[in-house]
């Protein structure tokens, strides 16, 4: 979102201490720190800084999934839901269940593709998600598949592509990561689309593409093309073309880390490694199967080194150059309209 479209951001940008900081970071120094801010001011600061950066990715590093959701809510209000992407951390080990967590993995792949292709420069994630590794292609050049009306993307070819991309065949498409086949029609629910879509074939030629409602299963809106993003790469992969990599290993080199984690990173990275190692060992004892821990997580010391290579802004690491912005918590309105009006008038 460009400056000038949001009054809150425009007013914040006039703060002299903020302007002084921006004149130094990241050109003259790649480290900066602020005294913790009240409420959503931290997110406002991040967006304001992001608007001044030239083609650099700004990464909100949240301490937890819950805090990440709070940041996402702020961003939806400030810049709109299409102006940022989220890279969530896993909720379970990928080998615990026969079926991977398609929603989490799909969001990770979609966000990574958007950042690396330059479609988004604003990312929300957690420190653990930065350290976790997922299976991705060595090159992401052909990650997104476009299906167009009139193109000869074969019926059988599409079914095979969906299977290889981790989609699960179902009698009825109701969730992201599912597809169904009925005669010459294929229904798909992929990341990158607000609704599932129905593709009708005339032999091996795409005749029509329609979005449809999950509840009624009725198709209405006709679209000229749709995009497919893989849900996972754990099925039918060629090991020589795929590798386990973490988010921090894939971030563009000039990305700015906006650190909201109060605990020292070294401690958090070690704790995450230990937790996943314990879960992995327990799984091996119970089921006789596990994955090498190095395929699941980036080793703490290596993760720390890679994280330290990026420009960073901290909120819980004080120094002589820490910026203190004058701010105070908002009043407790508690549905008092008269109090709200008085506060706005002030």
Automatic annotation (TrEMBL):
GO biological process, one term: nucleotide-excision repair
InterPro entries on file: P-loop_NTPase, UvrB, UvrB_inter
Organism: marine metagenome
Assigned keywords, A-Z: ATP-binding, Nucleotide-binding
UniProt name for this protein: UvrB interaction domain-containing protein
A molecular-function term among this protein's GO annotations: DNA binding
GO CC, one annotated term: excinuclease repair complex
A Pfam family that the UniProt record links to this protein: UvrB_inter
Residues annotated as domain UvrB interaction: 146-232
């Amino acid at each position: 979102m460009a400056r000038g479209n949001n009054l809150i951001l425009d007013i914040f940008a006039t703060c002299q201490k903020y302007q002084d900081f921006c004149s130094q970071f990241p050109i003259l120094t790649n480290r900066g720190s602020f005294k913790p801010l009240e409420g959503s001011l931290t997110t406002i600061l991040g967006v304001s800084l992001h608007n001044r950066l030239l083609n650099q990715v700004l990464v909100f590093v949240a301490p937890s999934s819950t805090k990440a959701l709070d940041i996402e809510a702020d961003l939806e209000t400030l810049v709109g839901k299409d102006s940022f992407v989220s890279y969530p951390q896993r909720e379970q080990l990928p080998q615990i269940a026969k079926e991977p967590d398609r929603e989490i993995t799909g969001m990770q792949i979609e966000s990574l593709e958007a950042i690396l292709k330059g479609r988004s420069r604003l990312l929300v994630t957690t420190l653990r998600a930065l350290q976790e590794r997922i299976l991705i292609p060595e090159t992401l050049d052909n990650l997104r598949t476009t299906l167009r009306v009139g193109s000869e993307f074969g019926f059988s070819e599409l079914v095979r592509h969906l299977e290889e991309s981790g989609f699960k065949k179902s009698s009825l498409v109701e969730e992201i990561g599912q597809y169904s086949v009925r005669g010459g029609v294929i229904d798909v629910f992929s990341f990158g689309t607000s609704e599932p879509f129905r593709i009708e074939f005339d032999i091996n030629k795409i005749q029509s593409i329609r979005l449809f409602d999950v509840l009624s299963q009725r198709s209405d809106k006709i679209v000229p093309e749709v995009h497919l993003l893989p849900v996972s790469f754990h099925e039918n992969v060629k090991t020589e073309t795929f590798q386990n990599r973490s988010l921090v290993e894939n971030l563009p080199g000039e990305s700015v880390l906006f650190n909201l984690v109060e605990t020292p990173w070294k401690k958090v990275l070690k704790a995450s490694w230990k937790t996943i190692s314990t879960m992995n060992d327990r799984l091996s004892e119970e089921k006789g199967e596990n994955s090498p821990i190095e395929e699941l997580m980036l080793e703490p010391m290596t993760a720390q080194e890679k994280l330290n290579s990026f420009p960073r802004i901290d909120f819980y690491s004080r120094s002589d150059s820490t910026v203190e912005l004058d701010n105070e918590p908002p009043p407790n309105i508690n549905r008092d309209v008269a109090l709200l009006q008085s506060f706005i008038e002030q």
